[in-house]
Design goal:
Two copies of one chain form a homodimer.
Chain A: H1 3-8, E1 17-29, E2 33-39, E3 47-52, H2 58-62, E4 69-78, E5 86-97, H3 112-116, H4 126-148, E6 152-153, E7 159-160, E8 172-174, E9 190-192, H5 197-207, E10 209-217, E11 230-239, H6 243-264, H7 266-275, H8 280-289, E12 293-296, H9 297-309, H10 327-337, E13 342-348, E14 364-372, E15 376-383, H11 388-397, H12 406-410, E16 419-425, H13 426-434
Parallel strand pairs in A: 3-5, 6-10, 12-13
Antiparallel strand pairs in A: 1-2, 1-4, 2-3, 4-5, 7-9, 8-9, 10-11, 11-16, 13-14, 14-15, 15-16
Helix pairs in contact in A: 4-6, 4-7, 4-13, 6-8
Organism (chains A, B): Spiroplasma litorale
Enzyme class (chains A, B): ligase
Domain Aminoacyl-transfer RNA synthetases class-II family profile (chains A, B): 132-444
């Protein structure tokens, strides 16, 4: 028996007998009666326990400290007039584990910064119970969405010699401390993956539809609210399909995940709406109920240029073809101009990755970013270059070493017809769905520069 | 439209019009008629395409090479007398991408060793389509099992300063090549995780039921068929529950996953039974239909001693309390003696990890291993030591540095009542379900000593 079952059981009657184990959130004791608020992690909802001095250990119970674990035997008292629809009148309470007095989460409010220092205890708060329940459910929704659509889950390698974007900033994996890579475990320099996409493409040519969902890493020395050294990515890839298919897939996936969270995390979403982002539920309703707009990058530039003419102030106001859109531009387009999620397509090749398919105009690539109100870019995807010669030329033009990539380029020689996919930063999605403002608060044990606890 | 839908559609009639994209497995052309066998990855089942010289590109088609990608328009011809119940008579075939002549997977059989060298292409074979479809479905079954039972999925950290077992052999994560860890990214020495259990325990005290499912790493320099440097682990943890609950959970999970594979991967299992392990399906049926036996370690020692008396030969035949059972002993117990899966419980504390709960006899711990016919140990679990003083003493006795573990031991001070969990090596499970004999064949891009390709 757990609290989630109890609070959601519509058939419970007064005097029904219950027995369960839970943790003490608060304890308020008078002379002859005391009130415990307890939680067992099965839901963020708490349950009030009333205990009276008829219990033989009343004196001990009245001193019971926060976070102690107890077993309660008692009877249901329905309280339909209160916010919590029932409470339990204890007939017996066994103290299973007493928490010590220095338990850091006493009743008062704590800052998110303080809670990060006790990442092993913060999931006991309602805020983090909500965030991590939603994270868990969203992860499952993603697996469910893809599996129901016939996708095969591929575990792309974590240790790799590739650096998908050519962007550097990889962590080195070694068993030595002297950089003598030929003598190292793998006999060469090894890194932590920054993306599983290239591996996923190989598998898409075998299974048609695949997705990865695993950790990725960036050794970027920046302390912002959006960057972590370790985060999870979802990277679907579909063979024989183009950018249009990819765009529909992204829209369907985002809506599916949000709908699933509305279905299974109602209380948690309401808690986040009240405590992390006012208007969160309205924002998510807008996303799941609207048709996502589609415009080209060139059209987006025009919209931004018009905005500048109409005296809208951007930090970067030199708007012209070739500009790598900033968050301010992305948010203007989806929040102010269209007021809903929007796909921008066909970006200049210069600001996108080497593997994206060159459009016939020779200037743009078949890429898309999904922008959503509140944060800007949520998903980035593209159709891949399927022509071996064009891909090789692009690598050469960009100075990309093709030695370790030869297997990837070779895929184009062995029957490769269209392939499209996207990357979704899982933490970015969870921040969006929970309203959490800092990536450190949606990762159980976050890793950032100079921060490696637990 | 994909091949999986076509071959499973019971309503298809002769002359129904179909259109789909697929890859050529074989091409056999006569003077006026040719036969293509094609696959699109949606199933391991192939489809035969008949093309005649009435097609304008017949000459080109008759030269079409293996692995080329084509689009087929044609009509269904039902062939109920053949193994494959239908074929397609092509009215038009468009060649979308021609494979080059040096495509390594020509029609002849290839060794698994050779196929490992082309990990980017081997998923196009039926063997690896079967293995990796089963891997994907088993991963989903695991998520489904735990989510349906109210477990919260926790992403334990990949980069860590902890070494859960104290067993060493961790990979170092660095941005330097000189071992100057105070100046490194995290300001101290960082490793790749060998287990997420300690972190999961912290979350179990908050959510009651949690599980991890992520990559783990061992820098063990051994080239065996069972060891990889990178593999995935599932580590559930449940608060307020004991070893008995844990044992039931393991049995339920193993049966659930196998049942799910029988449900959704029928063709793939049959292929594995015929090509990887004869009797595979019978073996799995035994597991899913039997009640798992339970004996203590002490009883197991007695059984092995009796076997030695009866002249059974073990490589290690000095059987006595304290022996760390080898695979030969485990397999004897479950295959010869009980002929079904078996849990062994209550191992000597000396051969188990520091965090396992000491039994009242002061000699054994509340640990269990699940042994299954065919491989021996599949799962290992335990109830955790919940007494702060006993845990601290155990760390001290074993010389474990408790500085970086203080947060873990401290959990016992802040209300900690029973916690039990287990670890399942995902690849070990996939080897067991598919009959694959080498761990390198159940990991898309395996990582082993001196081997870092793709």
């Amino acid at each position: 028996m757990n609290i989630n079952q109890l609070v959601k059981d519509k058939k419970l009657k007064n005097d029904d007998i219950v027995s369960f184990t839970a943790r003490v959130r608060t304890n308020r004791a008078g002379k002859s009666v005391g009130f415990l608020v307890v939680n067992d992690g099965s839901t963020i909802l708490d349950l009030q326990i009333v205990y009276k001095d008829s219990l033989k250990n009343f004196a001990e119970l009245s001193q019971l400290r926060i976070s102690s674990v107890i077993n309660i035997n008692g009877k249901i008292l329905l309280t339909p007039e209160k916010e919590q629809k029932l409470e339990v009148q204890a007939s017996e309470i066994e103290i299973l584990s007493s928490a010590s007095l220095d338990y850091p989460l006493q009743k008062k409010e704590h800052s998110l910064e303080f809670l990060r220092e006790i990442s092993h205890l913060r999931p006991r708060t309602k805020t983090f119970q909500s965030i991590f329940k939603i994270r868990s459910s969203a992860a499952f929704a993603i697996h469910k969405f893809f599996q129901e659509d016939g996708f095969v889950y591929v575990n792309s390698p974590i240790i790799t010699e590739n650096d998908a974007e050519g962007a550097g900033e990889s962590f080195i994996v070694t068993t030595l401390d002297n950089g003598d890579y030929p003598k190292d475990f793998f006999g060469k320099k090894a890194c932590l993956t920054v993306s599983g996409q290239l591996n996923a493409e190989a598998y898409a040519q075998a299974f048609k539809k695949v997705y990865t969902f695993g950790p990725t890493f960036r050794a970027e020395n920046s302390n912002t609210s959006k960057h972590a050294a370790e985060f999870w990515m979802i990277e679907p890839e579909v063979a024989f399909e183009d950018l249009k298919y990819n765009i529909d897939l992204i829209e369907n996936m985002v809506k599916y995940v949000i709908n699933y969270i509305f279905e299974v995390c109602k209380e948690e979403l309401e808690f986040c709406d009240s405590n992390l982002e006012n208007g969160l539920i309205d924002k998510l309703n807008l996303v799941r109920n609207s048709n996502f707009e589609k415009i080209t990058y060139t059209e987006a530039i025009k919209i931004l240029q018009d905005a500048v003419k109409n005296n809208h102030e951007f930090e970067e106001s030199d708007i012209k073809f070739g500009l790598d859109l900033g968050t301010e531009h992305e948010r203007f387009i989806c929040e102010k101009h269209f007021k809903r999620p929007i796909f921008i397509t066909d970006y200049p090749k210069e600001i996108k990755a080497f593997y994206m398919k060159l459009n016939p105009d020779d200037k743009t690539v078949a890429a898309t970013d999904l922008l959503v109100p509140g944060i800007g870019e949520l998903v980035g995807g593209s159709q891949r270059e399927d022509d071996f010669d064009k891909l090789s030329k692009r690598c050469k033009d960009l100075g990309i070493d093709t030695d370790s990539l030869s297997w990837y380029n070779d895929l184009r020689k062995y029957g490769y017809y269209k392939s499209a996919g996207f990357g979704l930063g899982f933490e970015r999605l969870i921040m969006y769905i929970t309203g959490a403002g800092n990536i450190r608060d949606v990762i159980p044990f976050p890793r950032t520069p100079k921060n490696l606890l637990f």
